[in-house]
Design a protein that fits this description.
alpha+beta; 14% strand; 3-stranded antiparallel sheet; 46% helix
Length: 248
């Protein structure tokens, strides 16, 4: 049970107990004392059970999601932790960071959950001070390599700008070949659409995928065709249509 749940259960029971104590101490001979005290205890039990039921349903939904995601090779570095325990750990960490637990029925619950698998997911703000000399694209390329499951391993990465507004060139070696790709200048935003260019360089069936954008962040991960289809059918995911960018 998370610390946040314990606090809420304690609050419900403490409130009802306080009501009962107030009646007993301040109005001990009031004929309503015992009924109100009894009612306060019942309310505390009901509230505690209700909160506990909500929590357990959320946990059940979360660890069911984790089980499905583990079938797609997520959370590989936590294989020794049960689905239930991992759901609790993630929920507690999320609560510590944001002051609330992950709502399994929320529109982005899957993304919030998978964001804690740093080896598979890149979810960041694309407004990232992309400026001449900041080498943001070098960091971005290294991050893509980190979440690629060994499929994309560039080396000797460099970033150059002709002017402060581009053109921009990212150069690197891949499989012994020297490669150059050219992101668009979008003020201080990362041009995440260079993923389309990178995917063309990857011989593996696995490719980088971008969750359909819903704000200025980008949620990127490496998936096989089958994994992508499963996320679309079972979880209702939508992806950015890179296949429509062949003439980029």
């Amino acid at each position: 049970m998370s610390n946040s749940l314990k606090a809420r259960l304690f609050g419900a029971l403490f409130g009802s107990s306080l009501l009962a104590l107030f009646m007993i101490v301040l109005r001990p001979y009031d004929p309503l004392c015992l009924p109100v005290s009894f009612l306060g205890g019942i309310i505390g039990i009901i509230l505690g059970a209700l909160i506990n039921n909500i929590y357990l349903n959320r946990q059940k939904s979360l660890f069911h999601s984790i089980k499905e995601f583990r079938d797609l090779d997520f959370f590989r570095d936590k294989e020794d932790i049960s689905d239930e325990k991992l759901a609790e750990m993630i929920n507690e960490e999320h609560f510590d960071l944001f002051g609330e637990e992950i709502n399994p029925q929320g529109p982005f619950s899957d993304l919030l959950l998978l964001a804690y698998d740093k080896n598979r997911v890149w979810w960041e703000d694309t407004e990232a001070d992309v400026l001449n000399g900041n080498n943001v694209y070098i960091e971005f390329m290294n991050d893509l390599s980190r979440i690629s499951m060994g499929v994309f391993s560039p080396s000797e990465i460099s970033e150059s700008w002709v002017t402060d507004e581009g053109p921009i060139a990212i150069e690197f070696k891949l499989g012994g070949e020297k490669i150059s790709i050219n992101p668009k200048y979008i003020d201080d935003y990362i041009d995440v659409e260079i993923i389309s260019d990178i995917n063309k360089l990857i011989p593996s069936e696995k490719k980088f995928e971008l969750y359909k954008p819903f704000d200025q962040t980008a949620f990127i991960l490496m998936l096989s065709k089958n994994e992508k289809i499963q996320l679309q059918k079972k979880r209702g995911w939508e992806f950015f249509p890179f296949e429509m960018m062949e003439n980029r």
